[in-house]
Amino acid sequence: MHNGHIANFKKIKRAIVNAIRDEYFLMVEGSTDSEWAFALFLDTLHSLGYSPKSPPEAMLGTIRRLNELLDEAGTGEPSLLNFAATDGHSVVCTRYVCSRTDEAASLYFSSGTRFHEYKEGGFYRMERHDRGQDLVMVASEPLTFERGDWVTVPTNSILTINKQTVLIHPIIDKYYQQNPAYSRSAAFVESKGMVAEPIVPSKPVKNDTKKPSAMNGKDASY
After folding, report:
1. Structure confidence at residue 118 as a pLDDT band (50, 70, 90)
2. Where is this region: Disordered (predicted)?
3. Torsion-angle region of residue 90: left (phi > 0), alpha (psi -120 to 50) or beta?
């Protein structure tokens, strides 16, 4: 999954094609930046050799390779690289922008023991019966109107979920902002039709979306 855009993708598409193995080139059936970014991720994963630690390393490697290609092409504006991938056992997600001053598109996670409709009419919330977490959800924007349900993933961070354990680490590269009090600008991401930090109402509002399918206690949704 890719939520965002690769700046001036046409300038680096040929470079991506030349950088990946034939087997991943042949897998791509479309022309979107998301498909080619995934092909680059698979190629990076192949280079590392698959192991339980490989998906996070491959995701970071994919971002590094994209940054190198973008720098060579001189694209001129930031790229928004919110990615998510899973091997069926673990999940790795990023909230990332190729900038030291701009915000990335928003990303949140919620964890607990049950996500359910607590009131008819489409009102949902995450329940926590103990300190354990049987269910982890990741979303670009909060799916409920309960403020306590959702934790913001910081800009330029990688989130991993393994055996229902959630870990967040900063992505330390040239776009890493060392000052935790620094306020990034939301203007760029909003100009692309996305949001940096959605405002969550303090009171529940009816959700007209269809009722989600049942989730068992061991799912990791994204």
Report:
1. confident
2. 200-222
3. beta
Scored b (16 or more CB within 10 A) or e, 93-102 reads bbbbbbbeeb
Over residues 74-100, the mean pLDDT reads: 93
Measured in degrees and rounded to the nearest 5, phi and psi for residue 52 equal -55, -25
CA gap 107, 52 in Å, rounded: 24
Residues 210, 121: contact at Cβ < 8 Å?
no
Q: What is the pTM of this model?
A: 0.83
Work out whether strand 2-5 and strand 80-86 pair parallel, antiparallel, or are unpaired.
Answer: antiparallel
Domain locations along the chain: 2-221
- Give the residue-averaged pLDDT of 87-107: 95
What pairing do the DSSP bridges indicate for beta strands 220-221 and 135-139?
A: parallel
- DSSP calls for the chain: -EEEE-TTHHHHHHHHHHHS-HHHHTT--S--HHHHHHHHHHHHHHHH---TTHHHHHHHHHHHHHHHHHHHHT--S--EEEEEEE-SSEEEEEE-BS-SSBPPPP-EEEEESEEEEEETTTEEEEE-SSS--SEEEEESS-SSS-GGG-EEPPSSEEEEEETTEEEEEE--STT----TT---B-HHHHHTT--SSPPPPSS-----SPPPPP--TT-EE-
For the domain bounded by 2-221, which CATH number is listed? 3.60.20.10
